[in-house]
Amino acid sequence: MGKYFAGVDIGSTTSKCVITDEAGNMLAFKLTDTLFDRDKSGKIVFYEALEESGIKEEDIAYIVSTGYGRRSFSMANDVTPEIIAHAKGTVKLYPGTRTIIDIGGQDSKVIAIDDLGIIEKFEMNDKCAAGTGRFFEVLTNRLLSIDMDELGPMCLKATNPPAISSMCTIFAESEIISMLSTGIPSEDIAMGMALSVAKRVIAMGKAGQIRYKEPIIFSGGVANNEGVRKAFSDILNKEVIAVQNPQNTAALGAAMIAIAKYKEQK
Hints:
By secondary structure, this protein is of the alpha/beta class. Helix content is about 40%, strand content about 20%. The strands form 2 sheets. The protein has a 5-stranded mixed β-sheet. It has a 5-stranded mixed β-sheet with strand order 8-7-6-9-10, with helices on both faces. α2 crosses α8 (about 250-265) and α3 runs antiparallel to α6. The chain starts with a strand and ends with a helix. This is ATPase BadF/BadG/BcrA/BcrD type domain-containing protein.
């Protein structure tokens, strides 16, 4: 009987779990909304992943947690910072990755990876909603009256996206209300929002001397939005590849670290 490993990523908005075998092959991935009780969130998503994989709890040799709630998860054997987990998971999925753009519910990160797959430098925004999934969540529901999963297709219909210059979600809201009142189409505003976030995140990375070497991989919940991926690609004038299941990278990275920690002990 082989050994199995779990990575649990307890983020501010969603909690994720990946289960792998000893070779790092992903056997299950589950995602659920993060509750106020971070420990409970981790347990729920861990047991859901176990059920999906068909693996028994006693066959899990090692668990590593990451994300905002990593220290709250009582079942973890160890914890790892999310930047390290994101890098490990992304490089596992896309060997040769040189830049990671990750936009989650409450933060955004740009990570430069060297040619050995090791983190060179990173920049992170977790202080302001602008440049995060929260920016889209607030403005999409309140102003455009559409669900988040409709935003990407709407962005792609844009013909003349306006510049949204406000650096603050509250002020951006006022700006968008003015645009709607002057008859600017919703799809143009949606793409304007995507471009605004992309510019902000790119500038954050450049301020930290990140040069956006290719391959550039886009992860996090916002990577589900094809309009935002296109915005990054258009501004950088480089190909930006969105992860197929963009919310699994940190949990996968945590599972990879679990494998390494377990082997260190042997």
